[in-house]
Write a structure and sequence with these properties.
Helix 3 packs antiparallel against helix 7, helix 3 packs parallel to helix 10 and helix 8 packs antiparallel against helix 9. The radius of gyration is 28 Å and the shape is elongated. It has one domain. The two termini are 36 Å apart. The protein contains ten helices and no strands. The longest helix is centred in the first third of the chain and has 43 residues. The chain is an all-alpha fold and 302 residues long.
């Protein structure tokens, strides 16, 4: 039975790792001081108490905009997670079908199968790097030959090139009679699904939320936080600064969360754990290879 680990409630309240507090703290403090300034002006009988200003931007309008912004960003985050879940499944299916489908007619055939399986692990890493717009990483050297790694340094779309390597290997196995046409077709379909998967992730990266919408939402939040102290200073008095800190913290926090998760493939604390996913794919494939090698050794001994 898998137990779900729950973080202590009070400890989570004060946790900074993964939180947007360090990012929005400066903004919240600014509006807290601004609220305090409005309160001081009010205490010196300046006519700053203007309740009508709080109705310039109705709260419900701003709330709806924030909810739409957050929901849109979370949809992108969840779609990215589903696509990477499919990446794990396709990698496992490719591993299993290549190992069981290709006949081992010579010792070289087995070495070729192992190299193909390691290419699948490298393909996941290449996909991660491609989505992050990064060049080949030394992490790939654990799964590729030196010549393959060197070649990738001149390639823009690494997943596409490596998919070609894998498809070319399968075609050669078919021509050598180690793979029948039905198995070849299934494996080629899996590779095509993998490329469709990369395209789906790339669509998320290359189609950000419209800049005009993001700018407008920031402007509305800023204007709302500027105007609201004038509405409540008469009722709250010296608590206006604290009130503004809470209000601005809530608004900027929701807006920042949406900003972080709209592209879930980066390095933000709330992005998808792509490094861990790729490591798990590689670990599973290497474990599978080691298990098959142990079975072969045991069979030869018997």
């Amino acid at each position: 039975m898998i137990k779900i680990q729950r973080r202590p409630w009070f400890r989570s309240n004060f946790q900074l790792r993964g939180s947007v507090v360090p990012i929005i703290l400066e903004r919240s403090l600014f509006f807290a001081l601004f609220g305090l300034l409005v309160c001081i002006l009010y205490e010196f009988d300046y006519p700053v108490a203007q309740p009508i200003l709080g109705n310039v931007i109705p709260s419900i309008v701003l709330a709806l905009l924030l909810v739409f912004r957050t929901n849109t960003a979370y949809d992108r985050f969840w779609e990215g997670r589903k696509l990477w879940g499919m990446t794990v499944n396709i990698s496992q299916n490719l591993t299993w079908q290549i190992w069981t489908g290709i006949k081992e007619t010579t010792p070289q055939t087995r070495k070729g199968k192992i190299a193909a399986l390691r290419l699948i692990a490298a393909l996941a890493i290449a996909k991660k790097l491609y989505l992050r717009r990064e060049r080949p990483d030394p992490e790939l050297t654990n799964w590729l030959s030196p010549s393959q790694y060197q070649y990738l340094s001149h390639v823009q779309n690494m997943p596409l090139e490596m998919s070609y390597w894998l498809a070319n290997y399968l075609q050669k196995q078919f021509e050598q009679g180690n793979l029948n046409i039905y198995q070849l077709t299934n494996l080629q379909q899996l590779i095509q699904n993998y490329l469709d998967n990369v395209g789906g992730c790339n669509r998320i990266v290359r189609t950000p939320i419209p800049l005009a919408y993001s700018i407008l939402l920031k402007q509305l939040i800023f204007l709302y936080c500027l105007l609201i102290p004038f509405q409540f200073v008469q009722e709250l008095g010296w608590f206006t600064g604290i009130f503004m800190a809470i209000i601005s913290f809530s608004l900027f926090g929701i807006e920042e969360i949406g900003l972080q998760i709209e592209n879930p493939f980066g390095y933000d604390p709330n992005d998808l754990p792509l490094d861990t996913i790729c490591q798990n794919i590689g670990r599973d494939i290497e474990e599978f290879i080691n298990n098959q090698n142990r079975k072969l050794i045991k069979k030869r001994i018997e």
